Amino acid sequence: MKAITIIQPWATLIAIGEKRFETRSWPTKHRGEIAIHAGKKIDKEACEDEPIRSTLAKHGYTVNNLPTGAVVAIAELNDCLKSVDTWTDGYELEFRKLIYYPEYEFGDFTPGRYAWEMINIRCLAEPIQAKGQQGLWNWNSEGHGGTES
């Protein structure tokens, strides 16, 4: 299965269903299942900023208990949309899909970037340790290994 490594707290925000769009500088043609891998890095400052801090707290997380180096969720990558405009209350993606607060605080929706839409997100009861990689990579959920793609 394809996987994407995301630094914390953003990987957990996806896993707990609070973040539906992963923003990247590059598009993807992949659609379908994708493993959400929490990298080893934690952006501690972001964890203390609102609304990230209170959103994590609502689900029992703090900067001190975020899983790292592990697959934390399985989602379906439904679409990849280019961010095209900003407006007073949020951002506009291609085809008039609008991003409102607090979702727009959980990514970089600067026009020209890409928003990967995640649906059917399933948080794993126990994170599965795995070594992450840059870009999209192949994760073997049975052997818990990864290979570059």
From TrEMBL:
Protein name: ASCH domain-containing protein
InterPro entries (UniProt xref): ASCH_domain (IPR007374), PUA-like_sf (IPR015947)
Pfam families linked: ASCH
Source organism of this protein record: Paenibacillus alvei (Bacillus alvei)
UniProt xrefs under Gene3D superfamilies: Hypothetical protein
Upper classification of the organism: Bacteria, Bacillati, Bacillota, Bacilli, Bacillales
Domain ASCH: 5-91
